[in-house]
Amino acid sequence: MLEIITYPNPLLRQVSNKVEKFDEELHKLLDDMYEAMLSKNGVGISAIQVAKPIRALLICIPDDEGNQNKEDLLEVINPEILHKEGEISFSEGCLSVPEFYEDVKRFKKVTIRYQNRYGELQEIEAEDYLAVAFQHEIDHLNGILFVDKLPILKRKKFEKELKRKKKL
């Protein structure tokens, strides 16, 4: 099982590199990331969160019953936001920032161009929860965490909570 690195690990601040090879090694990483994500009840994970600085991420939004189905899994390589509009405030958490949730403002709707595990170009329009998940995970690829988007007072609250947990 891949280990998910957590804040303040400096790797999380690294900008990830473009994926050039769509081979068995990449496929195995994607499969292992999926297992790691599900084991922690996550809906998204980026490769940098398992200490692999490549532009790859997974998103699997639960269905209405709260189940994550493999057929709903999006494997996203080298994503690029083509269009963004509207605004939504969403309570976010992160596998790399465990047990901390806070409202973050994001675009309500995004259009993403990316490659699948075989290198084929894809495009998707995402709204609401899925749009938020895309933006959250793409931020990871750019070395940005959701706590970076918080207003200063909420950011201070987060840092205080983190220090308190470290003492326990």
Overall description:
By secondary structure, the chain is of the alpha+beta class. It has three helices and seven strands. It has a single domain, classed as Peptide Deformylase (Alpha-Beta Complex), CATH 3.90.45. The protein has helices spanning 24-39, 128-141, 152-167, and strands spanning 44-46, 56-59, 74-85, 88-94, 97-106, 109-115, 121-127. The strands form two sheets. It has a five-stranded antiparallel beta sheet. Strand 6 and strand 7 (121-127) form a beta hairpin. The protein is globular and about 45 Å long. The two termini are 26 Å apart.
Topology, pairings included?
Elements: H1 24-39, E1 44-46, E2 56-59, E3 74-85, E4 88-94, E5 97-106, E6 109-115, E7 121-127, H2 128-141, H3 152-167
Antiparallel strand pairs: 1-2, 2-3, 3-6, 4-5, 6-7
Pfam families: Pep_deformylase
Enzyme class: hydrolase
Keywords: Hydrolase, Iron, Metal-binding, Protein biosynthesis
CATH superfamily: Peptide deformylase
Radius of gyration: 16 Å
Which residues form runs of ≥5 with pLDDT under 50? none
The number of distinct helices, counting runs of at least 4 residues, comes to 3
